[in-house]
Write a structure and sequence with these properties.
0% strand; mainly alpha; 70% helix; 123 residues
Length: 123
Amino acid sequence: MTENPVAHDAPAAAARDRRAFLAPLLSTLLTLPMALLVLFYAGMSPMACDSCDGEAAAAFDAGFETAWPVFLGALVVALLLLAACWILPWERRNAARRVLLALAAPGAVLLGTVVFTALIDWP
């Protein structure tokens, strides 16, 4: 039986991480349902001002026109963070970066929802 000489020469930091999929998987399982839920919330929010008229409706519409693209941008950032944590090479030296990206994805969804809610002048 021969040993692999490359395995002994490779530094420990560049070794393949067998558990590299855990952080992106958990982040994906958390981020995607959360993003769909808050997308439903944001999509239904114009109904909060269905009975509004005049100045209240104008204020709500102005806030919503600003908040909606910001919210969609936050969801795109969350998806890009998810993609980045999956694409990052599965080496031990990237474990901290992968976990950080995996934690940032649901954080981007939460931050986008908070900013969306804050930008709208609710009736």
